[in-house]
């Protein structure tokens, strides 16, 4: 085999190896993008990592046992919004549905779409904290100076009372943090939807 043929064969092998490496890299990037929503869905379904469970409407017993639910609010330093619960804490019976509101205000001079993340502490209480309605399920568009009162409907699963490991749980904290959304849906909201004045949002 001539040196030219050897060189050509080596080049083809290198090209095949490079192609495989590129395919692997693309696959890993795709998996990374897919894993985030899958992980979020897993957390919402199981309560893993203190993430409250997203529940469905249905009949459930309401027990005499009560817990105190406290509400926490945080805003990313780069997001010019003011965000706070209208009630700092409530006492609820296990199984009892409760409606509370958070108020958010855009204090900037530009429209902004925000998205929130949430968790429950202590972390083991996450699987027992169920949300039926929450502003965190969708991104929120606020015009300059606009305020929204945003609802959260939740209950603490009465099944928690059957697990002796949670007998000492008397207080749980629901915490939210808002960030500016940079998604395609956020771009659509900023480009097409008009929101005026002060109102209530879900």
Provide an overview of this structure.
Helices cover about 25% and strands about 35% of the residues. The chain is α/β, with parallel strands linked by helices. The chain folds into 2 domains: about 1-45; about 55-200, Ctag/Cox11 (Pfam 04442) (Sandwich), CATH 2.60.370.10. The longest helix is centred in the N-terminal third of the chain and has 44 residues, at about 5-45.
Tell me roughly what share of residues is in helical segments.
25-40%
User: What are the low-pLDDT stretches, counting only 5+ consecutive residues below 50?
Assistant: 24-50, 194-202
Number of strands: 11
The CATH superfamily of the largest domain bears the name Ctag/Cox11
- The shape is elongated
Structural class: alpha/beta
What is the ordering of alpha helices and beta strands?
Answer: HEEEEEEEEEEHE
The radius of gyration is: 24 Å
Number of domains: 2
The CATH class of the largest domain is identified as: Mainly Beta
List keywords for this structure.
disordered C terminus, elongated, alpha/beta, 2 domains, 202 residues, single chain, Ctag/Cox11 (Pfam 04442), 5-stranded mixed β-sheet, 6-stranded mixed β-sheet, 2 helices
Compact summary:
By secondary structure, the protein is of the alpha/beta class.
Helix and strand arrangement:
Blueprint: H1 3-46, E1 53-54, E2 66-75, E3 81-85, E4 89-93, E5 98-106, E6 112-121, E7 129-134, E8 140-142, E9 147-156, E10 171-180, H2 184-192, E11 199-200
Parallel strand pairs: 1-7, 2-10, 9-11
Antiparallel strand pairs: 2-4, 3-5, 5-9, 6-8, 6-10, 7-9
């Amino acid at each position: 085999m001539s040196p030219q043929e050897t060189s050509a064969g080596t080049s083809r092998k290198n090209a095949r190896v490079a192609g495989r490496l590129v395919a692997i890299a693309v696959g890993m990037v795709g998996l990374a993008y897919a894993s985030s929503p899958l992980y979020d869905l897993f957390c919402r379904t199981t309560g893993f990592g203190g993430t409250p469970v997203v529940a469905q409407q249905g009949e459930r017993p309401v027990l005499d046992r009560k817990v105190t639910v406290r509400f926490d609010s945080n805003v990313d330093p780069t997001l010019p919004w003011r965000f706070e619960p209208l009630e700092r804490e409530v006492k609820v019976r296990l199984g009892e549905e409760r409606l509370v509101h958070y108020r958010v205000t855009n204090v900037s001079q530009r429209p902004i779409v925000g998205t929130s993340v949430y968790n429950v502490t202590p972390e083991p209480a996450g699987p027992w904290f169920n949300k039926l309605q929450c502003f965190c399920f969708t991104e929120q568009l606020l015009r300059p100076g606009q305020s929204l009162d945003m609802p959260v409907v939740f209950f603490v699963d009465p099944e928690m009372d059957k697990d002796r490991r949670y007998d000492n749980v008397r207080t749980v904290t629901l915490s939210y943090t808002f960030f500016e959304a940079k998604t395609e849906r956020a771009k659509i909201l900023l480009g097409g939807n008009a929101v005026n004045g002060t109102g209530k949002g879900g």
